[in-house]
Amino acid sequence: MKESIERIFKELAELKAASQAEAEQARVRFLGKKGEITALMEQFRSVAPELKREYGQKLNELKKAAQQRIDELKNSAAEAVVAAAPKEDLSMPGDAIPQGSRHPVSIVRQEIVDIFRKFGYDVAEGPEIEDDYHVFEALNFPPNHPAREMQDTFFVSTGHPNPLLLRTHTSSVQVRTMESQDLPIRVICPGRVFRNEAISARAHCIFHQVEGLYIDKDVTFADLKQAILLFAREMFGPDTQIRMRPSYFPFTEPSAEVDVSCNICKGKGCNICKGTGWLEIMGCGMVDPNVLKASGIDPSKYSGFAFGMGVERIAMLKWQVNDLRHYFENDMRFLGEFATATEV
Ligand code: DAH
Questions:
Q1: Which of 56, 180, 272, 301 is such that its CA lies 20 to 30 A from the CA of 75?
Q2: Is the peptide bond before 143 cis (omega within 30 degrees of 0)?
Q3: How far apart are the CA of 60 and the centre of ligand 1, in A?
C-alpha cells in the first residue's frame, strides 16, 4: 500500500491535462467510485492496527493532494479556453449615434431671414418680456382695445400704468428699432410670442413670428406689395401669386391681409386652401403716422411699411402639416422627417 501511495503522489506531480475533459478523466481515475485512491481507502480497512495511524494520515494527504491537483488542472484548462477565444473584433462598426436635425420651425425662420437679408434687411431683436408701451401703446392700440385684455395677454405684473407682459407679437421690436436706430430703417424681427389661448390644431400659447419694417422717404404701398411678392416667390416658388385683402391693424393704415396662391392645387381649390385657391400668410400695411410720431419720426418726411407673419403657419403650408401642435411636442418621429430638408 505504501508503494501505491508514493507512486500516486509521483503521478499526481507529473499529471497534465490539455482540457477540462482530460482533468475530469484524471479525477475519475483517482477519485471516482472505482478510482485508485478510492480503492486504497477500501484496502485501508484491512490494514494492521499498528499501521493505521501512519497510513491513514498518508491516505488523507494523498486524497487532498489529488483533489487540489485536479482543481488546478481544471482551472488552468478553463483559463486556456478563455485565452484562446478570439479577441474583440476591433474592425466591427460601432453602434450608430442618432444624429439630430434642426427643428422645422428654425429651418423656416432661417429661410425667411435669409430671403429678407438678400433684400438688404438687417435682423433686429427685442425682449420677450416687454411692457405695455412697446407692445400696445406706441403701436396705436386704443386704451380699451380687446388685445390688451387678460384672455389674450400673459401679464407679468399688473396694477400700474405700464405693466410688464409677455409680448403678444414681434411688432414691439418695430418700436424698439425706431427708438434706437437711425433712418432709413430696414429690419426683420424674428422671435417668440405668447398668447393666452386655448391650445388647438390651429392655435398655441407660444409661437413664432417674423416682423418686417421699412421706413424711408417716399416708401409707398407699391413698395410693400413688391417686397411681399418677391418674398412669396422665394418662399413658395416662382409661379406664386399674391393678393391683398383690406384689413385692420391699429399700427398700419391702410392695412391688408396677404394671401398666396395655393401651391398644392395651383389655385384649383383643395382641402389645404379649403377650396379657395388662396392661403393667408401675413398681415401688413403702411405704418400709421401715429406710430411714427410716437417713436419720434416725422410722418410728413418719412413713410414706411410693416408686415408680420407666423413662422409655424408658413411651416404648416410649406410641409402641409395640419396640426400646429406637432411643432411643440418634440416627437422624434415627426422632427426626424425634416432631417434631410436640413442638410443643405
Ligand atoms: N402684429 C400682427 C399680429 O400679431 C401681425 C402684423 C400685422 C404685423 C400687420 C405687422 C403688420 O407689422 O403691419 O397679428
A1: 56
A2: no
A3: 100
Other CB atoms within a 10 A radius of the CB of residue 171 amount to: 29
Answer whether 288 contacts ligand 1 (Cβ < 6 A).
Answer: no
Torsion of CA 35, 40, 45, 47, to 10 degrees: 170
Is the Cβ–Cβ distance between 314 and 112 less than 8 Å? yes
| Cβ of 104 below 6 Å from ligand 1 | no
Between the CA of 270 and the centroid of ligand 1 the distance, in Å, is: 27
C-alpha cell at 181: 436706430
Residue 132 Cβ contacting ligand 1 at under 6 Å: no
Position 344 scores a pLDDT of 43
Give, in order, the Cα–Cα distances in Å from 187 to each of 116, 125, 286.
Answer: 9, 10, 15
Q: Return phi, psi of residue 197, to 5°.
A: -120, 150
Name the amino acid, one letter, at 173. V
277 phi, psi to nearest 5 deg: 85, 0
Beta-carbon count within 10 A of 94 CB: 5
* Eight-class DSSP state of 9: H
The residue contributing the CA closest to ligand 1 atom 13 is 284
CA 302 – CA 116 distance, rounded (Å): 21
- Ligand 1 centre distance from Cα of residue 272 (Å): 23
Query: What is the reported pTM?
Result: 0.73
- Grid coordinates representing 132 are 405695455
283 lines ligand 1 (CB under 6 A): yes
Closest by alpha carbon to 182, among 48, 325, 297?
A: 297
CA–CA separation, 231 vs 214, rounded Å? 14
3-class state of residue 207 by DSSP = strand
Helices (H), 32-48: 36-44
Q: Which atom of ligand 1 is nearest to the CA of 169?
A: 4
Q: Verify whether ligand 1 is closer than 6 Å to residue 136 (CB atom).
A: no
